[in-house]
Amino acid sequence: MTARDPRGLRASGSAGLAGARADSPLLWNVAGLLGEAAGGVRDYSVAGVEIDGGDDFQLAAPIDGHVRVTRTNRGLLVDAGLTTALASQCVRCLRDITVPMALEIRDEALPSLDLKTGKAATLSAEDAETGVIVLTDHHELD
């Protein structure tokens, strides 16, 4: 996971997280928020989330924090503050170490489908180039 791309997260079980499916604790359906006027807000608490980083990383502590999603005129503004720790190994002495992580995420998410018509939304060249987050076809933020 990087601060620019929270989509890289995949769940490895259920966690105590309101609004997310049990099999994917960092996934929220935001269709209701997309139907509101600009300025609408949803807050999600992230507590004890465990994910499988595969060969890329291994968590030493669960993910905790807060996610705020705000409706804009184009889509959503995602603000998150998350903490965790990674299990790693010192490259010099080869001892196992724990690296604390504090992540601040502020990014825009755009719908992949128009909520009213169901037609596919088109990304501008600039949005595609910057790698803007795109919601799933079920209006979910992953």
Short structural description:
The chain has helices at residues 31-34, 125-130, and strands at residues 20-21, 24-29, 41-49, 58-71, 76-89, 96-110, 133-134, 140-141.
Description of the molecule:
By secondary structure, the protein is mainly beta. Helices cover 7% and strands 45% of the residues. It contains two helices and eight strands, in the order ββαββββαββ. It has helices at residues 31-34, 125-130; strands at 20-21, 24-29, 41-49, 58-71, 76-89, 96-110, 133-134, 140-141. The strands form two sheets. The protein has a five-stranded mixed sheet, with no helix packed on it. It has a three-stranded antiparallel sheet with strand order 1-2-8, with no helix packed on it. A hairpin with a 2-residue loop joins β1 (20-21) and β2 (24-29). Mean pLDDT is 85; it is low at 1-22.
Give the tags.
142 residues; mainly beta; five-stranded mixed β-sheet; three-stranded antiparallel β-sheet; elongated; disordered N terminus
Structural class: mainly beta
Largest sheet: 5 strands, mixed
- Regarding quaternary structure, what we see is single chain
Write out the strand line-up for the largest beta sheet, numbering strands in chain order. 3-4-5-6-7
